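=== RUN LOG ===
request id: a7f3
mode: sequence -> structure
chains: 1
length: 476
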Amino acid sequence: MGADHIGLLTRRAMLSASAGAALLGFVRPSLSQASQSHRIAVARGQAPLTGPRRPATDVWAYDGVVPGPTLRVRQGEPVSIVVDNGLEEDTTVHWHGIRLPIGMDGVPGISQAPIRPGEKFVYEFTPPDAGTFWYHPHANTLEQLGRGLAGALIVEERSPVPVDRELVWTIMDWRLRPDGQIARGFGNMMEAAMSGRIGNTVTINGVVPTVEPVRAGERVRIRLINAALARIMALRFEGHHPVVVAIDGQPCDPHVPKHGRLLLGPAMRIDIVLDMQGEPSRRYEVIDDFDEELKYSLVELAYDAAPPMRMHPSEAPLRLPRNPLPTPDLKAAELRELVLQGGMMGMRGMGGMARMGRAAWAINSTSMTGDGHAGMPPLATLELGRSYVLRLRNDTAWWHPMHLHGHSFRVLSRNGAPVPHNQWADTVLVAPKETVDVAFVADNPGDWMLHCHVTDHQTAGLMATLRIEGAGSETR
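=== RESULT ===
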């Protein structure tokens, strides 16, 4: 990122006393650390995004920190989270990737009334799936997320993979002025019709990083969360071979990614296990080269001088226990094609941007703008309990991470070629002119959002609702 990559390092210490003890052998995260009751306050604040020697950045934050506090809860146990709104505008919280009741999904006007300034809302749900999830607003999403409102939500596995340490990297992208403050201009329609609001500064856990301290021979689990508005990342771990063990919180067949690159669109998560087989006292770059001309070093793995903990990678198994996802019946599944349309270089047949007003995108020639609102007619009505294949056909010149609320789906194929490694997701990255087939069981009744998680694309029309209803179901 060169001169535009602002800031200095202010990383938290790598090892606490308990983590130091963990270096003696593999450990499993203690489920006793997870709490089922939380309270978070939404308010304006300041964060040292670019280091302690530069002015703090004015942000909007959960509990005064960016990203918000990492919430850890237990799989299959009821959760209660009170959200206090201290902003001067409405907000909500969407628990991204959690399969929960529609009334807890955080979409204003569709699943709940917005949380007014000075008011609170209690979110209550029981997470059926373990994994890496996150939370963010679904009201004025473009600006609220772009000013810092995001946090990790970890649902602990009952039998996690044995590792020496676990790291959570919540990666955020900021557009900062030279004085370190957030630049205005949210909702620029020219950007919305292209790749969205890309920043000039990338942070991990709220700071511009330079190093991640590691020790030779240790095995580390890293939970990667892309909480950016629009930045797509392709991460390469120089000199290392990350093993993917989960995608969007859902376990997959452990595998080394193709060409060693972890492709991570906005809202996507990938859990990796990394055996630190580098040389003591040496540094190795983690590079984002999604755009080869703009590639930059996100962070360096900085080995200390201590001798290796172990000389060879452990042979301990890396497979996570499967979550209780319903398996779609592909033979009986009904196919629904969803065509992604519009954007710069793709407006023909849509009347042009001038005639579309605030809409630059559409799904099946239908545009829904904003964050969701009461009275939005569903793009399709699905039968409760039935299996469906959604064929996402990207007729545009741009990438789209497509997210379905309330469900996880099996990623079946890309341009007709089967997708390996038993991959499930809630957000799938669809390349320009690519067609992706995903399958799921419509087992969660309600009006569920389907939208691009490049937030400018969502608010400029690349959004719809799928209504799931059937005998005995309730929607609102």
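=== NOTES ===
Residues 1-32, 351-356 have pLDDT under 50 and may be disordered.
The chain has five helices and 31 strands.
=== END ===
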